[in-house]
Amino acid sequence: MNIRLKLVLSAAALAAGCVLLAGCGGSASSASSAASSTASSEAASPSASSEPTASVSAEENGASDAVASAVDALLKADPISNQFEITAMNIEYDFGLKADDVTSYKGIKSNDNGDAGLVLAIQPAAGKAQDVMDTLKTYQQDQVAFYGNYAEFAQAQSNVENAIIDGGDDLVVMVIASNDCSSDLTSAVKDVLGK
After folding, report:
1. What is the average pLDDT across 166-176?
2. Phi and psi of 182, rounded to 5°?
3. Are 156 and 179 in contact (CB under 8 A)?
4. pLDDT tens-digit series, residues 90-124
5. Which end of the chain has the smaller Cβ count within 10 Å, N or C?
6. Which residues contact 193 (CB under 8 A, 6 or more apart)?
7. What CA–CA distance (Å, rounded) separates 92 from 24?
């Protein structure tokens, strides 16, 4: 009887060990598959899309020298805390801009809760500058409403209310002061736009 009991317990232990190993292997395999699937879809997105705003960096999205230098100049006046680079997904889904309206872009925003700091430069498609500015004004109104829901974000709400949206046929910029910004952003925007 002891031998049978030992065999049953050994078999149960082996079965439990196999289940645990298979479970761990399955999880690792699933995580690995999920990670490679995500990487594959991220890698496929820019090449599958014919949109000009399909990637993150200025070099990759073809941002013109004017767009890149505008952002660099504005960041000197408006240093953004905890910088987050604006991607094609942000351009379309957060800002509501149509890919056909944007030739190139570059932007940085704050990734801190309660800091609405933003520097965005866009080269609009021919004849689309006013559409881009109107869409950015709608984004501004949405952000004012969002920050208005939180008393602790009163500074951010004020900064968004005082956002500067300006430009012309070749370049449109939107600047929202970061909470620690003390520069005159109106002058900085005028300098960038040559006004």
Report:
1. 94
2. -125, 5
3. yes
4. 999 999 999 999 999 999 999 998 899 999 999 99
5. N
6. 166, 167, 168, 171, 173
7. 39
> What is the amino acid identity at position 8?
V
> Which residues make beta-bridge pairs with 181?
none
Q: What is the mean pLDDT of residues 175-190?
A: 89
Contacts with 110 (C-beta within 8 Å, 6 or more apart), sequence order: 80, 81, 82, 83, 84, 116, 117, 118, 178
- Cβ 172 vs Cβ 193: under 8 Å: no
Q: How far apart are CA 64 and CA 13, in angstroms?
A: 65
Number of helices and strands (H, E) in the chain?
7, 5
Over residues 63-85, the mean pLDDT reads 90
Taking the C-alpha atoms of residue 158 and residue 160, their distance in angstroms, rounded to an integer, is 5
Question: Bridge partners of 173?
Answer: 121, 166
Q: In the prediction, which pLDDT does 109 show?
A: 95
Residue 31: both structure tokens together: 């995580």
